[in-house]
Amino acid sequence: MHDSADKLAPAAARPESREATRQNSAGPGRWQRWQDSDLLHSFLRSKLVVLAAIVTVLLVGAAFLAPVIAPHNPYDLKSLSLLDSNLPPMWEAGGEPSYPLGTDDQGRDILSTILYGTRASILIGICSVLFAVVIGLSAGLWAGYAGGRVDALIMRIADVQLTFPAILTALLIDGVAIAIFKNYNLDAAKFGILVVAIGLSFWVQYARTVRGVTLVERNKEYVQAARLIGIGAGKIMFQHILPNVLSPVLVIATINLALAIITEATLSFLGVGLPATEPSLGTMIQIGNRYLFSGSWWMVAFPGLTLAVLALSVNLLGDWLRDALNPKLR
Amino acid sequence: MLAFTIRRLFEAAIVMLTVALLAFVLFRFVGDPINQMVGQDTSLEDRLRLREELGLNDPVPVQFARFVASAARFDFGISYQMKQPVTAIISERAPATIELALVAALFAVSLGIPMGVYTGIHRESWLSKLFLSVSLIGVSLPTFLIGIFLIYVFAVKLGVLPSFGRGEVVRLGFWNTGLLTASGLKALILPAITLGLFQMTLVTRLVRAEMLEVLRTDYIKFARARGLTLRAINFGHALKNTLVPVITVIGLQLGAVIAFAIITETVFQWPGMGLMFIQAVQNADIPVMAAYLLLVAFLFVLINFLVDLIYVRVDPRIRIYGRGV
Is the pTM for the entire model greater than 0.95? Predict the structure, then answer.
């Protein structure tokens, strides 16, 4: 397999062969450069950021290895038993070692459900941020490059949307989707609806940032030169201007990831997100909230803690990235 | 100033019309309004007659004009779910949300400004670090988690405060207030803290940042050189000059308070507009959703407009700039 990939590579890479050789020649020096870079230096300087990174990697890793490391499968209805429901964590009286963090009202193991639920939350977060980036990038590039009426229209829409908080926009899109698909089986489509709803409520920030950079880059000589030799507008936008906007977009995306995860959890908690059968951190907290008064604190405490820690560490990473990539603060 | 006001008013009108168009599309084309209103055994003739009576056969622009006209008179039709006029439902629910939002804002400002001033002046003290850590957590934690945590501590464990509802309310004309009874006030505490915490952290951080900036300026150094007391410098000179951006942000945050009220009201089963909206979303109750959308948009546009005007009035630098242009 390795051989065939090698054979295919030159043919596939021919159009960008110059690009490829440049990257190859930079190969050995690149690791060295990374080690010397400000980015790594500022990363290691702050213990809090390192801790946040470790926690994030652990949580994401555990979530995506859920099918392997989870002691039970919350999707497997056969393995559930109502006799095991409402068990406290193993260190409390009445707890069982096979359910380390206790069970919920249907006898699902809390630990396993958290692992699967975190996976769902992170997946929706990443997908919706990607969706927002794609829309925001395209709209911003187009508005900045085309200017004139296109620019005015896109930025007006962005202004109107910016007057509303993102959570409200997400709720509205979600509500409309529920109304449209009222008569269909929604559960399967819920993932997509959530991604679209959260993604559409976050695109404005990217569009504004990208437009700002594009307005500056558009008039630089290299873009004028590219236009003169007859390169199409699309290629100029995506191949020449796009690389200039990637670092601010990356920063916003990291901070938005935490927000997107919280938004998903909030929507699910409000009962308009993922269905109750689909474990996510939000739905778990929603279910646990109903049993708060019966003393079953573990049903809401552990997923709540996971959500808080996840959001906090991703936020810290985003803050660090923003400061590290901001040349003004160096 | 007049030209500025007129331009802003014009922009506000366009925003409102756009939102009205959205609400209209929602109302008219998401599901058939007739099917939502009548039962299954209504005959076809009755349906057609109702369709004609409601004017659903008219050209779409005419329908839109009629929709805008009735919305301007606060007539949003009948709720599909509750079979009552939407306006009646909203006017019954609005006082609960407005009281909650105002108390939360008061909480945020009355705690946030002193904390911001303190952390701005005593940068290195452990109390400042504590305040800042708390505010970082306040920004990162989702609202509903804070609400659940407060309920668990104060309602479940300590049993001192109620966890849901508004308590007893007193009717003052058209306004139901919970501020005049002991149970109403007790019921207000936890939701107001939950709702106000995020704004409080925001105010703290903003005041701190502004204080740090202002304290570096020459006129503060000069005030020190004149031998003014620390209190006069910090509060009379520094804090006063931080307040313009703070007022703006607080004004703009009123909108966010309304949005987060949806979550807080759900956690505490607070009978306000946010809970009404969530129930409308869950039941696809389009008239209520459309009305809420228009109402919130109106509030936002109004707040933005007022903040713009106040800003120009308060900050002379903007006024001079505006006159020059």
Answer: no
